[in-house]
């Protein structure tokens, strides 16, 4: 089964997702499809960038931020209506941890004591 918008929409209708509204943890590609992003060759491919903080100076000071409207159909490679609310998406922690470790290893001094 391919991870396309139509396939996931059909699957969600069969399991009656709208009735249950479960939390979803999936691969980053599947999450991008669920929120309605264009599948390939995108300029704005990362939905996580839309969730990034707006004010770097108050990042650790301000606790409550107003909810931001994003993923508007027809803007920034959003082709279709999201199948899942953003509050119901759990980010894949393994992908994030691997990315952090990859950047950490890249930043290490190759001639240092860590090697």
Give your account of this protein's structure.
- By secondary structure, the protein is mostly helical.
- The protein has one domain.
- Helix content is 35%, strand content 3%.
- It has helices spanning 5-14, 17-20, 28-34, 47-50, 93-107; strands spanning 24-25, 89-90.
- The chain has a two-stranded parallel ribbon.
- The longest helix is centred in the last third of the chain and has 15 residues, at 93-107.
- It is extended.
- It starts with a helix and ends in an 8-residue tail after the last helix.
- The model has no long low-confidence stretch (mean pLDDT 76).
Order of helices and strands, N to C? HHEHHEH
Mean pLDDT: 76
How much of the sequence lies in strands comes to under 5%
Q: Report the oligomer.
A: single chain
The residue ranges in which pLDDT falls below 50 over 5 or more consecutive positions are none
Biggest sheet details: 2 strands, parallel
The whole-angstrom Rg is 18 Å
Broad shape: extended
């Amino acid at each position: 089964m391919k991870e396309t918008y139509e396939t996931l929409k059909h699957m969600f209708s069969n399991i009656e997702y709208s009735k249950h509204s479960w939390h979803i943890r999936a691969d980053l590609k599947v999450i991008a499809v669920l929120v309605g992003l264009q599948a390939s060759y995108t300029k704005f491919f990362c939905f996580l960038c839309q969730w990034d903080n707006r004010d770097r100076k108050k990042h650790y000071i301000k606790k409550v931020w107003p909810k931001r409207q994003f993923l508007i159909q027809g803007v920034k490679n959003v082709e279709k209506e999201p199948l899942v609310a953003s509050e119901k998406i759990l980010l894949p922690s393994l992908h994030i941890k691997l990315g952090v470790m990859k950047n950490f290893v890249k930043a290490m001094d190759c001639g240092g004591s860590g090697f």
